[in-house]
Amino acid sequence: MQGDLITDFTRAVRQKTGLVIPEDDLARFQKIIVDRMRIRRIDIGEIYLQLLLGQSDASKAEWKALSLLLTTGESYFFRDAGQMSLLRHKILPELIRKREAEKRLRIWSAGCSTGEEPYTLAMLLTLILPDWRSWSIHLVGTDLNESALDKARAGLYGEWSFRKVDPELRKQFFTPLPDQVWRIDPQIHGLATFAHLNLIEDRYPNVTQNLYDFDLIICRNVFIYFDAPTIAGVVEKLTESLCRGGYFMSGHAEIHGRPSAELASRSHPESIIYQRVEKAPARTLHASAEYSVTPRAPAPRQTQSVAPARSARRSPPPPVAPTSPANRAVSSRVNLSEQWNQIIQLRHKGESEKAASLAVKLVASHPEHTPALMLLAWHNANQGRQSESESLCQQVIKTAPLSPEPHYLLAHIALEQGEEGLAKSLLNKALYLSPKHAPSCLCLADIMARQGDAHRARHMREIALESLAQMAPESRLEFYDDWRVEELAQHLRAQLADGAQ
Ligand SMILES: C[S@@+](CC[C@H](N)C(=O)[O-])C[C@H]1O[C@@H](n2cnc3c(N)ncnc32)[C@H](O)[C@@H]1O
């Protein structure tokens, strides 16, 4: 098959399902296409492509068959002990308290595969809500894959679905049948419903399908196959399907930072979870979230020379007479660090516009102030002004050629534009300049995991963890959402222990 034609097929799949076919998977992809053509008795690739691009019932049926072969429905009960514990001990009890008066809960497992995830949620609910029978619980699982949904509806599971389940829990909720098959408890079975939904193509929130106003949406291990713009689009629609204050949980490292202006990240030791908030502040970069552009901490390396340490701020320097040149220089430095502190404080308060306009003034008088330039570069990127952001990055590369930061931000912009190859080489450049630059390691790890290179993804995360161990636990990671170093390290350790990609 010609390279152009394969590209047309990968594009069609990406548009329809969001799935990005990695370079090293192209041979398998081509084989799947050829097999489907054989089954449909089509000899010419272009004709099969036309079938896929059409709107007929035959096209729809073909997409169903093809997507079965392209998606992996790997799932198991109580997947990710940390996230399950967060749901069981914090999030679900909070939602139950909130809904106590109405006694109603609405939960959606998007990309539920064979049903282990929504049934796990049903089990958790019955464990923590003794009078669950008197509640109105809408717990729905949706997926693209019809045969996975059929399996979910059947409620019969083999050993592999229980690989991380406490045997006592299995006894409590399942009945053994011959041939190592287990049937789910009819009450748990009755709590969940299942429906077909393509997260990319279909419309939601959707009242007709009862997909709206959710208290909790879980969409885990689905985004790993999507590119950044697709993830952003799906997260936006999922966010709109939440009620105010509703929670959204994805898999670890699938999205980062603040993926939607209406989602605030809530960082717990077990996992990050997002919450729909009232106000929509400035848009943030959708790509890999690590790069939420509301950087919490001042850029330490470059600022050390200009920003006073905490203790220094508490006891201001003795007044100096502004007459001599030496005194004027000291006074100007103090003034500079005060300005920078003010900018940082505004940024911490979420007043990013004000912080940016002060940073513009600061840069006007100190054109080589790298932290201020980087702040402006992030701010522009978050506002969608990518070319301004890029030229600020180039300015930083000139003034601070050894800094990994501009390359790291440029990599984010490249990801936003779907240029994963370019993003990788920019991140490698950042790591060449600073071999343990944790945000670059983590961003690269996400890309590798998406491309199915679990081994190298793990290695990059281990390097990031080593680098975090050398930082003050209470400090915040520069341009990496509002992660505190120790929380991020804990999160990474859990992720590595869980063996997640
Ligand atoms: C690895 S499974 C994850 C199952 C479960 N969420 C978990 O974490 O255990 C990924 C699922 O996402 C589904 N999926 C992939 N692309 C989808 C799309 N565009 N719309 C809906 N589901 C999709 C696949 O069919 C598959 O069942």
Automatic annotation (TrEMBL):
Q: For this UniProt entry, which residues form the secretion signal?
A: none
Where would I find the CheR-type methyltransferase domain in this sequence? Answer: 1-254
Q: What is this protein called?
A: Putative methylase of chemotaxis methyl-accepting protein
Which InterPro entries does the entry mention?
A: Bact_Chemotaxis_MeTrfase, CheR_C, CheR_MeTrfase, SAM-dependent_MTases_sf, TPR-like_helical_dom_sf
Question: Where in this protein does the record put region Disordered?
Answer: 289-333
- Which GO BP terms apply? methylation
Classification via PROSITE patterns: CHER
> Which domain of life does this protein belong to?
Bacteria
Q: What is the lineage of its organism?
A: Bacteria, Pseudomonadati, Pseudomonadota, Magnetococcia, Magnetococcales
**Which ranges does the record mark as transmembrane?**
none
User: Could you tell me which SMART domains the record lists for this protein?
Assistant: MeTrc
Q: Which UniProt keywords apply?
A: Methyltransferase, S-adenosyl-L-methionine, Transferase
What is one Pfam family matched by this protein? CheR
Q: Which GO terms describe its molecular function?
A: S-adenosylmethionine-dependent methyltransferase activity
Query: Do the record's keywords include S-adenosyl-L-methionine?
Result: yes
